Amino acid sequence: MSSAVDTEGTAAGEAAGGPHAVGAARRPGSAAGPRSITDWRPEDEEFWERTGSRIARRNLVFSVLSEHIGFSVWSLWSVLVLFLGPEYHIDPAGKFTLTALPAALGAALRLPYTFAVARFGGRNWTVFSALLLLLPTALAAMVLRPGVSYGTLLAVACVAGVGGGNFASSMANINAFYPQRHKGWALGVNAGGGNLGVAVVQLVGLLVLATAGAAHPRLVPLVYLPLIVLAALGAALRMDNLASPKNDRRALREVSREPHSWVMSLLYIGTFGSFIGFGFAFGQVLQVQFHDQFDTPVKAAYLTFLGPLLGSLVRPVGGRMADRWRGATVTLWTFAAMAAGTGVVLVASHQKSLPLFLAGFVALFVLSGIGNGSTYKMIPAIFQVQARRAVAAGADPETAERDARRRASALIGLAGAVGAFGGVLVNIAFRQAFLAGASGDAAYWAFLVAYVVCFVLTWAVYLRPRTAGSPTV
Questions:
Q1: Is the same domain home to 243 and 312?
Q2: Nearest alpha-carbon partner for 188 in 384, 320, 69, 366
Q3: For the segment 290-306, what is each residue's pLDDT rounded down to a tens digit?
Q4: How far apart are CA 162 and CA 103, in angstroms?
Q5: pLDDT by residue (tens digit) across 86-121?
Q6: Whole-model pTM above 0.85?
Q7: Domain check: are 257 and 280 in the same one?
C-alpha cells in the first residue's frame, strides 16, 4: 500500500484508498524538493475517478495559461508589423520575413521542449519556459522605435520563437496526465486554450491601435510582462511533476523510424501549419491585397483576431468529434472542407470581394482548428493500437502501455515541430506570391493542392479498406 499526501500539501482524503492514491507527492518549497507524483495510473478507472481527474484538471488549467501566453509571445510580431509604418522603411516582403522567423525558431524548439518535460519535470519546465518569455517581450519593448535597423528587428523577432516551444512541452505533459479515453478532449482543450493566445494578442494590438495609436507599438509587449510573471507563479504553486515519464532518448529514434510518424507530421502541417501561418500573415494579407479598404493598421486589426479566435475555440470540438467518430474520419473530411474553403478564397480574390474573402478565410481558420484537435487524437491512438497488438502477442500489459505513452509524447514533439514549419511555409508562400503580383493567388493554389494531398494521404493510410496493417485511429 502506498503512503500518499495530496499534492497541495494537505492530507488527501483519497489516501484512504490505499493503492489507488497518488503516491509520494511533496510540498512545494519543502526540504524534500519540488512537488512530485510517483504513482500515476490514469487508465485505472477507480484511481481516475477517486483522485486522478481532479489533479489532472488542475494541471491542465495552469498548463493552458502558460501555453496561452507562449502563443501570444510567439505571434507577437504578427501584430507589431501592423505598427511598422513608412517611417520604418520596411516593404511587405520584409514584413512577411519578420513573421516567418519566429515561426521557424518556434518549430525548431519544439523537439527539445518535448523532452525537457521528461528531463526536468512538467511543473519545473513550465515555470522556466514561462519566465523565458520575458526575454523576447522585453527586447521588443526596448527596440521598437523609428530608426531601429531592420537587422535588429529580425533578431528580436526571431527570439520570439521561444513562445512556440511551449506548446510541445505543454502537450507532452498533459498527454501523460490523461487516460486514452479522454485524450482527444484534454489535448484539444490544452491546445485550443493555447491557440487563443494568437487571437488575444491581436485584440491587445487592436486596443493599443484604437487608443494610443500606431506610434506606440511598445505598449503591446509591455502588457505581457506582468502576465508572464503571473503564469510562472501559478505553475510553480499549482502544478505537479510526474515521475512516470522517463527521459528516454530512444523514444524519438523509435518514432522517427515509424512511417506513421511522418504521415502524422505531414497531416499536422496541413492543420496546425495552416492555423499558425494564417494567424501570423492574415493582417498583412488584408493590407496588401485589399489596400484600398485597409489603408490604416487599425482597420485590419479589427478583423485579424476573428479567425484565430474561432479556430482556437473549436479545437476542443475537433478533439471531441475525434473521440466519437475516430480521428482519421474527422481529419479526412476536414481536409476536404479546407480545400473547398480555399476555393472560396480564390474566387473572392479574383472577384476582389472582401466579404467572400473574409468568409473563406474564417472558414479555413475554423476548419484548421477542428483538424488540429482530430490529428492530435490520432497520435496516441496509433500507439495504443500497437500496444494492444503487443499484449495480444504476449507482451506485459503495463510495459506495453508505458511504451505507448512515451512514444506518443515523442511523436507529439516531432509532429508539433514539423507541423509548425508549415507556418513558415505559409508566410514564405505569401511573400513570394505578393512579390510576383498584386494578389496571393499563387499561394492559395499551393494551399489547395496541399489540402488535396493531405485528404488522399489520410484516406490511403488510415481509412482505405484492406487487411490489417494500419491502426484504426
A1: yes
A2: 320
A3: 887 876 777 777 788 88
A4: 9
A5: 899 998 889 999 999 999 999 999 888 988 888 899
A6: no
A7: yes
Same domain for 93 and 11, yes or no, is no
Amino acid at 431: R
Non-local CB neighbours of 225 within 8 Å, separated by 6+ positions: 134, 137, 138, 141
Do 367 and 407 belong together in one domain?
A: yes
Give the integer Cα–Cα distance in Å for 111 and 265.
Answer: 13
CB 6 within 8 A of CB 12: yes
With a CB cutoff of 8 Å and minimum separation 6, the contacts of 327 are: 184, 374, 375, 377, 378, 381, 473
Length of the chain (residues): 473
Beta-carbon contacts of 216 under 8 Å, excluding residues fewer than 6 positions away, are: 83, 208
H-run or E-run covering 360: helix 354-392
For residues 318 and 324, give the distance between their C-alpha atoms in angstroms, rounded to a whole number: 10
- CATH code, domain carrying 70: 1.20.1250.20
**Is 13 domain-assigned?**
yes
Domain span including residue 231: 40-463
Query: How many distinct structural domains can be found in the chain?
Result: 2
Alpha-carbon distances, residue 116 vs 126, 246, 290 (angstroms): 10, 10, 44
Same domain, 266 and 392: yes
149 in helix, strand or coil?
A: coil
**How many Å apart are CA 236 and CA 50, to the nearest integer?**
24
Same domain, 62 and 195: yes
Which amino acid is residue 322, in one-letter code?
A: A
